[in-house]
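Design job #97: recover the sequence.
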């Protein structure tokens, strides 16, 4: 969320308990994944569970074979994360264990001396776009106790992971990352269920969302950098209340619920986003400042609202829950 305000993460085989092991591994995971295919047999589930336990994995259903993983934990005001990751397609998972909302935007330094500390110093000096750094995307705004995931292509080089929420970056919420040359070969992206195209200044979704898990493939065909955070409205707050919160300097937690997103993508770049959507009202917004007038893109119309209906048998229960504020 790059705001227009300058201040602005020895194995026994239990044949009878395999399914329970699998469920437990999935529930413990902090990395969202794609659910197993409905036709998968119990024998197949057992195999996957045992393989995950043997590997010590913490993700459920890795969506892209061989994908490098970058797990980031955020709190106030810093990140706990590896210092390096292999180049290529990387699945970034942001887990927020803090009290405030956080994001993990990656910037790539275009020189050999750039550091996270120097980047933060530039922002403190009111330079929102340091000349030796280029935004490359990342995990969007994530609530305390929640996690979010995104896949992006990373070239070898020096990077920083930063949070642009409020004054988090000027407080030092920046971490160095080295992306190192890898001989693992090409990594295939996850299978997308929806396509989102970014233009100047609009979002174009190929097919309306339905409730459930999705992998959203995002591609920027515009001439400007774009981002997108997706929010779920509450019974008392929606787009208008969110924009008022932004205009007030985004203090504390937002009045709506972030459900996933992607950091700044340059023209021609792409990302894949983990989403788990429930019935309700949503909107997606871009807050990058425009080149010409520095106004945020949503003021140029780059905001879209959409709704996801509950299945017919669940609508009555959903309305009753909303009446009680749930």
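Job complete. Output follows.
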């Amino acid at each position: 969320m790059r705001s227009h305000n300058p201040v602005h993460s020895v194995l026994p085989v239990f044949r009878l308990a395999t399914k329970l092991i699998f469920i437990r591994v999935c529930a413990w995971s902090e990395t969202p994944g794609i659910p197993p295919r409905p036709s998968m047999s119990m024998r197949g589930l057992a195999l996957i569970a045992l393989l995950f336990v043997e590997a010590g994995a913490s993700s459920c259903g890795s969506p892209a074979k061989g994908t490098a993983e970058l797990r980031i934990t955020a709190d106030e005001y810093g990140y706990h994360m590896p210092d390096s990751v292999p180049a290529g397609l990387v699945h970034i998972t942001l887990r927020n264990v803090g009290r405030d909302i956080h994001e993990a935007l990656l910037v790539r330094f275009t020189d050999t001396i750039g550091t996270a500390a120097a980047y933060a110093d530039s922002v403190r000096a009111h330079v929102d776009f340091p000349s030796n750094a280029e935004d490359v995307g990342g995990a969007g705004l994530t609530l305390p106790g929640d996690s979010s995931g995104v896949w992006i292509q990373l070239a070898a080089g020096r990077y920083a992971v930063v949070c642009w929420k409020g004054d988090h970056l000027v407080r030092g919420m920046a971490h160095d990352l080295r992306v190192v040359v890898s001989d693992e070969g090409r990594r295939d992206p996850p299978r997308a269920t929806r396509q989102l195209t970014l233009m100047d200044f609009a979002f174009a979704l190929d097919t309306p969302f339905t409730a459930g898990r999705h992998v959203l493939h995002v591609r920027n065909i515009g001439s400007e950098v774009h981002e997108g955070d997706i929010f779920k409205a509450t019974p008392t707050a929606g787009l208008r209340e969110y924009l008022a919160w932004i205009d007030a300097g985004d203090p504390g937690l937002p009045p709506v619920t972030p459900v996933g997103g992607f950091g700044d993508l340059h023209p021609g770049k792409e990302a894949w986003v983990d989403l788990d959507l429930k019935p309700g009202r949503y909107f997606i917004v871009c807050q990058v400042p425009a080149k010409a007038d520095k106004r945020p893109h949503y003021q140029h119309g780059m905001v879209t609202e959409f709704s996801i209906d509950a299945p017919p048998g669940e609508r009555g229960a959903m309305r009753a829950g909303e009446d009680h504020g749930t």
